[in-house]
Amino acid sequence: MEHYVADWPAGFAPIHPADGQKVELNGFIGESTAKNICSIKKGFASPIGEPYRLLNSGQKLSGIHNRLAAESDLFKLIEGACYAYAQTKDPELLDLITENLDHILKHQDSDGFIRYPNRENLDKKYYHDLYIAGHYIEMSAAHHAATGDTRALSSACKWADALIKAMQDEADSFKDAGKKEHPELELALVRLFRATGEQKYLDFAEKIIDSYTLSNKISDLWIGSGRTHVVRTAYLLMGCAEFYLTTGNNRYLNYVQSLWEEICETRRYITGGFGYNEWFPLYPWFLPETGRIAETCGSIAMMMLGLRVHSINGYSDSRVYDVIENIFYNHFLGALNAEQDAIFYYNPIRVLPSVPEMLTLDNGKPVNSRTKLPAIHSCSCCFPNTWRFLAQLPDYIFSTDGSAAAVNMYTDSTATIDLKDGPAEIKVKTGYPFDETIEIEASRDIMLKLRIPGWCEGAYVESSNGVEQAASGSYKDVRTGGAKVRLVLPMIPRFVGASPLSAEGAGRVAAARGPLVYCYEVSNAEERAELYRIPLPQTPKLVPGTAHNLEVSAVKMNNGEGAYFTVCQKPAEECRITLTPFYQRGNHSSNEPGWITMFPAI
Ligand SMILES: [Zn+2]
Predict the structure, then answer these.
(1) Does position 572 have pLDDT exceeding 90, yes or no?
(2) Gap from CA of 571 to ligand 1 centroid (Å)
(3) Which of 106, 217, 374, 598 could bridge to 46 as Cys pair (CB 3.0-4.6 Å)?
């Protein structure tokens, strides 16, 4: 296996992710990918892993197994397990993969379709058939690459052939696919083309992409039902990006670049969440902070898309990894609990325990409590997406243009990077995202490209060339000269303000340090976090001896009993409040917690 997902040919894009198979992750990110293996095994023991096993032992499926696109969750789980197996060669993972695949293959009919009970084939009620098949195909490519076993791949070809035939026969569901389906198949077909070399899968991918209404502007999109649904949009753009990366044909490239830009600049929450009611709002700067916002899958899909955009845009655009890092360290890790066996579906940036109607919108679960395995959400796409994303993360850390080795994300790690003049081994040592120093050692004299995040001012590099300043929001070229390189990314705590154009964010600030965004947590309904205002100017202070908390001065407002009150009627109460990293919220109490991320500034 070469690469987990970035196995497109080098050459059409300026840069290519380094081969994740040659990357060993430790440190902060490595801890998370290690916990992911345990979480994947727990996933197989949850209802996500059960359906075909139950069916083959003559048992009936229950309500939880009849959720929307339930089998696609199992396919994503197996896909993640295949990447994890490729990393670890853990025989328990291989047994789980093989056992589940054996059960699934018994349900492939002679026409090529793998069917699920109680569901019509090419179902015109839910329009998720192409999506489900897409996840099976992606899983089959991962399975083939990780194990060398061709059974899943050949069954995926039969399923894809059945869909091609259905389209040629003008099956009803294909007529409305672009208005109603859920993208995923396009990306999967491009991967199937790469795995098999069969041109028909690439041609089919192009036809499916063309059935959706793409545009350079979010407001003109129509991507399946949901129109601007976050996950649908990001998956389709991934298919478009991979079409280019695989063929060099740039017919969809404009959409990828302009929509990536518009989404990240005008539709992104401060924590890296996306979507209101699962859609990108049609108009910019509409970012409500609570309730049904920021589905976890939406952020995962945007990180996956970011990996492709990074390859396409090259090193002149360092903002792509600013976005990936913003999502990863805040929204994404914040969806998971500390053990990574519980997850939010919606992932709001503000929850007030005193507003109960906000608490019951997470597919029947409170939005401020995670669903813990073996329990799953009634729509359980998000957990399988975390499993497959974290297991493919080694592809995201390093990249290369052939001449230089770039470090995109900093964590303790070892990697072999294939450069034009031969392989080079790199060792990274750091306590990032909490510590500002990163040490990098290469096995020989090579050119490094070190990502300097957009949030970082005053970065500098110490190398055999002496000390050099490094510009914020760039890749800094550093010749190793065979010596250790030390990068310092000063992490001065700061406030981040929202655009004055943002309907909810205007006039409000959040505290941040390095890539981490902070929030104020409350664990009981009596404490009203929304009453705090932050007087500016001041700088948040790192609380010594704590788990990287920040302390700020705040003013507690007196609001009386009614909906409105006269400001300054009573003297405001000054106090100090402690902020915790957003990704750690909801881990500190078994009560229903609340939190606020953006504060009114005064
Ligand atoms: Zn989801």
Answers:
(1) no
(2) 46
(3) 374
